[in-house]
Amino acid sequence: MPRLLVAPLSSLADAITAHQPSHLVSLLSPEHMIETPAGFPQALHLKLGVNDIVDPAAGTAPPAREHIDSLLAFARTWDAKQPLLIHCWAGISRSMASAYTILCDRLGPGREIEIAKAIRARAPHAQPNRLLVIHADEALGRGGRMIWALNSMGPAVLVEEGVTTTFPLEGL
């Protein structure tokens, strides 16, 4: 079944072994970016050096439009025959925003709230990075619907680290 996976960095090796993804996305601060895992094709590993901040003035390497443009271009090369695995440090914010972006792109306009609620149902800990979602909403021409849908998710369960979570492309 075509699916996205979201994991924290601490579960990355286990997720690769268990799920055999064809594509990998790493969203980590530039100074903590990892090397491509041994045996994984470098060309199928997108590395986005971005900090988990929501105010561009609050620090270095904030999420930017070019991060979303790179993510969308990379995800559009994925044939969905094997999973696409997305990870950040904790599997809560940057990776969940990226999964939301890819799902919105794949499933099409008008499904933003459905997707946001499916993310909440499968990942009570999800807190998608709002700045990444703002850029995604603009890139996908959603007119604010992706941000509005985030508000419909309700509050997240507070955790230090998420768990590996599966998001099917069919039957959310």
Report on this model:
The protein is of the alpha/beta class. The longest helix is centred in the middle third of the chain and has 14 residues, at about 95-105. Helix content is about 35%, strand content about 15%. The protein has a 5-stranded mixed β-sheet with strand order 3-2-4-1-5, with helices on both faces. Helix 2 (about 65-75) packs across helix 3 (about 95-105), helix 3 (about 95-105) packs across helix 4 (about 110-120) and helix 5 packs antiparallel against helix 6.
Mean pLDDT: 96
How many helical stretches?
Answer: 6
Name the CATH superfamily classification: Protein tyrosine phosphatase superfamily
What's the overall geometry?
globular
* Radius of gyration (Å): 14 Å
- CATH top level is Alpha Beta
Distance between the termini: 12 Å
Helix content: 25-40%
Low-confidence stretches: none
CATH level-two architecture:
Alpha-Beta Complex
SSE pattern, N- to C-terminal: EHEEHEHHHHE
Q: Order of strands in the sheet with the most strands?
A: 3-2-4-1-5
Determine the strand fraction and express it as a percent band.
15-25%
